[in-house]
Amino acid sequence: MAKRTAQAGAAARAAELREQITQHNYRYHVLDSPEISDAAYDRLMVELNGIEAEHPELITPDSPTQRVGATPIGELVAVVHSKPMLSLDNAFTDEDVTNFDRRVRERLEDVASVEYAAEPKLDGLAVSFRYENGLLVQAATRGDGLRGEDVTHNVRTIKTVPVRLRGEAPELLEVRGEVFMTIAGFKAMNEQALARGERTFVNPRNTAAGSIRQLDPRQTANKPLDVFFYSVGEVRGWKLPARHSEALAQLREWGLKVSPLLKVVQGAAGCLAYYRDIGARRAKLPYEIDGVVYKVDQLAQQRELGFVARAPRWALAHKFPAHEENTIVRDIEFQVGRTGALTPVARLEPVFVGGVTVSNATLHNMDEVQRKDVRIGDTVVLRRAGDVIPEIVKVIIERRPGNARAVELPTQCPVCQSDVEKVADEAVARCTGGLFCPAQRKEALRHFASRRALDIEGLGTKLIDQLVDTDQVHTPADLYKLTLEQLTELERMGEKSAAKLLEALNASKTTTLGRFLYALGIRDVGEATAAALASYFGQLDKLVAASEEQIQQVPDIGPVVAAHVRHFFAQAHNREVIDALRTQGVNWPAQPQRTQTGEGALTGKTFVITGTLDSMSRDEAGDRITAAGGKVTGSVSKKTSYVVVGAEPGSKAQKAQELGIEILDEAGLLKLLAG
Ligand code: 9MJ
User: Fold this and answer.
1) Which of 4, 69, 255, 574 could pair with 166 in a Cys bridge, judged by C-beta atoms 3.0 to 4.6 Å apart?
2) pTM score of the predicted model
3) Which residues line ligand 1 (CB under 6 A)?
């Protein structure tokens, strides 16, 4: 009896958890407005997993724990689409759009102006999703539009695809959407591939397509895939509304994610204004789009217009300038970075791609050059998407000229002629010249003066180049010895700007220990690590004298970074530069030493930051909050102590107001940080 009751209790709790998790998924993924923190969500999942592990008989196919199947499938099975999946006619010019609108109006009788549902055109792959009585039963790729492949096992792993619809679902709902990979997810995958010495992925589109066609769903489950639903296919048990935009609004109610940029516009003029608006926002979107789509909004009008071949007369894809173009590699040179790393850079025949003219592309390292087999003289596919740096995708081998020339890693640094060293297991090669190498010196000075280091305003790249090339500055300490006469003799430097620079140099002398450590440019010591070192040791002399083991006591610092830090301070010339800087007056306030981070003025407080801050980036604000013992999370919940609101805040500010959570502006945050 007791057992039966326990069983019933577990079943009820599992059902309750499933409902809660499904609701939180909807708020997070579809409405973009989560109600609980990620950690609280994780706890619900852990609890459900626990119940299901103890009572496997309670597992349901639509349980949020059941997204990833454990066994690979043998092969992808063909699926015949019950209604063909259409393609879209393309437009490239404004005139193409006005002609399209004119044709639509001519075919529709008694219509002076047509309303269009406009939305971005995602560059992913089209997938059909079949829901029976609210349950996802099949997902299939578009294929040739008539037949695709069954990819249900993989589509189930995409968190934004509901396995069960919310509310009253129709008997049958077949919807279409675009599965895509976010740019951030794609970049992260490529960084991992580079770090492992593996081949990089070509673009988010191909990577998404490859992930969806995997045989093993466990391989798909860890890929950053997402979806927007954009049309309705076969339906039973639902009377479609009058408009396409209304149908999409109902899809959203059912928990299917629809583009938040969907807009109903009026006539060709409305379409073109929308095209320009989205074009201006394109580089900032977190995913790739290759145009916008216009669809006649009234479904009765769509039916009247009908189809030609495989494309509807009522829809049009208006394309943006291409992301990929062909060009020729004129040369491959090696640049020397701050840490001496030699980076091969392709000098290209200038080409207009993704909205800008590109004449250089990094090849990252020699492994990458060899993998892609890029040679001087080759014709290559160049890609520039969003604000991503331009990249050579591949060589067009058929166009390789007879005199194409492969490059080799130089044995001598191209700048200072010191030996180049390549560590066996690392992809990078380094110049061994250290600060003797002018290229490394310039980069080190640039870093020292940068905004998040000593923040020397007006000391730009050109100026540093001149100061190093004319042998006036060797180390950062030399910067503080510059005189007005020296500066006014430089190119393009009037007395006024020289005086201003001296003022900026003087102002930069008062800094913090964290910034100073970051400015030194120690390998692998970024802002966060520098801040951690500063708060752990409190005083520079203690850090300089610390052993590797002691440095490893700092939270989040491992043996590799500790070795770099120790190595840096062990070198006499580095200690000399530090002494010289202090002699020149570089100083920082004493910092209370904290042997354990997580203890400070903000201990126990949880922060959410939204919008742009003036005096620091969000990352920097996060670091400072963490250094003071506080915690930063991504979503607002009842447990949030403060929401810091900068310029152009997101929905989180509103959420904070709704929950009655204290809102801070930047000044308020600075005040709290100051204790
Ligand atoms: C994309 N790719 O974003 C359609 N699409 O409609 C949108 N594709 C489409 N609609 C009918 N937003 C066929 C394809």
Assistant:
1) 255
2) 0.57
3) 86, 88, 119, 121-122, 178, 230-231, 293, 315
